[in-house]
Write a structure and sequence with these properties.
The protein is an alpha/beta fold. It folds into 4 domains: 161 residues, Rossmann fold (3-Layer(aba) Sandwich), CATH 3.40.50; 113 residues, Transcription Regulator spoIIAA; 86 residues, 2-Layer Sandwich (Transcription Regulator spoIIAA); 59 residues, Beta Barrel (OB fold (Dihydrolipoamide Acetyltransferase, E2P)), CATH 2.40.50.140. The protein contains 14 helices and 21 strands. Helix 1 runs parallel beside helix 6 and helix 10 packs parallel to helix 12. It is globular. The protein binds S-adenosylmethionine and iron/sulfur cluster.
Length: 474
């Protein structure tokens, strides 16, 4: 748990928000004279949201809140929401609904909804209409304005909705409250210009905006000084970092600069888009000794026809060529990916092309999704004749295929020793720890919790399907 304060490039707005933070703090001190106010923050969705939540929590802490895991004890509940798939969205509505009886018992409690879902007009309408107990709603472009919006909510006694559709400049210098010291998320850019036909992200996160290299490097330095052992650079398409900022620092150049910083840490990044993943980037990765030998490169479909319908900007062969080059310059590279099953109009034969690509590349692991129609996207208007039950069967076939590959990959790791970053105790609480290899594979092993946050060597002693167990090695 660390608090950082970064040098800012937008001091005017930051200072304005600091003034509101001071006013909120005064209101809360009067309202809670005996104890600090408690906030429960829950994050849905991707690491981009996790990073936003760290900034939201930083601002809440600056206003005097402490954090609780128990929403029944909270004075403020904040949900940072995800709009990427319908399932995630339904979960949010379900969880917001469940807050109604909690608020009936704790009438002073403030309920705050923010994030990607709140950039969608139909969602905001539904909240206005059906969830009158929600106090504050704001979208992804207003993360830095939490103090001002909370002030209005606390003072005005009225519900506040701030869902502007335009992204302003990036506000630097927000306080950041991190849940972990050794694993850090570092946003390098926001938004997306790609408009894949299935995806809602460009609509809810706006166009690409890159942070300045100086701001990124400064934050990386602070993270390393604070004990970070692994820094993950974040963006919807990190390969287009700097393309629209005019200072000439590309993503490969940024990677080299971070690699040159002193310290014992590794760099990961996500997400890379295959259409912009250049040989230059793969060469830079190969040269940077701190860049983990792990590439997350979503392919989405193994069929060139489906990829075209998805507006992905590459063919099956382009993807395979890229993988071949990556493996040539980094023979020990571990590959992970995202894949969608049941895109509108996808045939069973085209789905088989996805399976054959998976068998050919042999990914370490996959994030697998069934196509989810999203309002406002092009794909929602496309003919989608395959029934949901059929798509579920394809999905099961996909999982089975990947499980067999993962099991083979795990079996090949048996007897070998890997450096792992120790992340936590296992859920079973059985004196075992979980660590992650550079290639992003988890291994459980017996060990003392004091090792958490350190790199240790672990020899793999057991490979049960795709679950690995091991023991500490020298
Ligand atoms: N920017 C990243 C990229 O281009 O690979 C991905 C960001 S998106 C939040 C994460 C993943 O969600 C995508 O790679 C895709 O596989 C999946 N996804 C996005 N929209 C989807 C939809 N409508 N239905 C199913 N899966 C979806
Ligand atoms: Fe969505 Fe495509 Fe942008 Fe990724 S690149 S966020 S999948 S539109």
């Amino acid at each position: 748990m660390t608090e950082y304060t970064l040098p800012g490039v937008s001091p005017g707005e930051r200072d304005r928000q600091q003034e509101f933070a001071a006013r909120v703090r005064a209101i809360l001190e009067a309202q809670f004279p005996e104890r600090p106010p408690r906030a429960f923050v829950h994050t849905y969705g991707c690491q981009g949201n996790v990073a936003d939540s760290e900034r939201l929590k930083g601002q809440l802490a600056a206003m005097g809140y402490v954090f609780t895991e128990d929403r029944e004890q909270a004075d403020l509940v904040l949900f940072n929401t995800c709009a990427v798939r319908e399932h995630a969205q339904d979960r949010v509505f379900g969880n917001v609904g469940a807050l109604k009886p909690v608020k009936e018992k704790r009438r002073h409690m403030k309920i705050v909804l923010c994030g990607c879902m709140m950039q969608q007009a139909h969602v905001v309408q539904r909240i206005k209409r059906s969830y009158p107990f929600v106090d504050l709603v704001f979208g992804t472009f207003a993360v830095h304005r939490l103090p001002e919006l909370l002030y209005q909510t606390l003072r005005g006694g009225k519900r506040v909705f701030e869902t502007t559709e335009t992204a302003g400049e990036i506000v630097e210098g927000l306080p950041v409250y991190r849940d972990g010291d050794f694993k850090a998320w570092l946003p390098i850019m926001y938004g997306c210009n790609n408009f894949c036909t299935y995806c809602v992200v460009p609509y809810v996160r706006g166009r690409e905006r890159s942070r300045s290299p100086e701001a990124v490097i400064e934050e990386a330095r602070e993270l390393i000084a604070g004990g970070a052992k692994e820094i993950t650079l974040l963006g919807q398409n990190v390969n287009s970092y700097g393309k629209n900022s005019g200072d000439g620092v590309t993503f490969p150049a940024l990677l080299r600069r971070i690699n040159a910083l002193e310290g014992d840490f590794k760099i990961r990044f996500m997400t890379s888009h295959p259409k912009d993943c250049s040989k230059e980037l793969l060469d830079a990765m190969a040269e940077c000794e701190k860049a983990a030998r792990h590439l997350h490169l979503p392919f989405q479909s193994g069929s060139s026809r489906v990829l075209r319908a998805m507006n992905r900007g590459y063919t099956r062969q382009d993807y395979l060529d890229l993988i071949a080059y990556a493996k040539k310059v980094m023979p020990d590279l571990s590959l992970t990916s995202d894949v969608i099953v049941g895109f509108p109009g996808e045939t069973y034969e085209e789905f088989q092309e996805t399976l054959s690509l998976i068998r050919e590349v042999k990914f370490t692991s996959l994030f697998t999704f069934i196509f989810s129609p999203r309002e406002g996207t092009k794909a929602i208007t496309m003919e989608d004749p395959v029934p949901a039950a059929e798509k579920s069967k394809w999905f099961a076939e996909l999982l089975k295929t990947q499980e067999a590959i993962a099991a083979q990959r795990c079996a090949a790791m048996l007897g070998r020793t890997y450096e792992v970053l120790v992340e936590n105790e296992t859920k079973e609480n059985d004196g075992r720890l979980t660590g992650r290899t550079e290639g992003n594979v988890n291994i459980d092993f017996p060990g003392d919790p004091s090792l958490i946050g350190r790199y240790v060597n672990v020899r793999v002693t057991e490979a049960k399907n795709w679950v690995l167990a091991g023991e500490l090695a020298l």
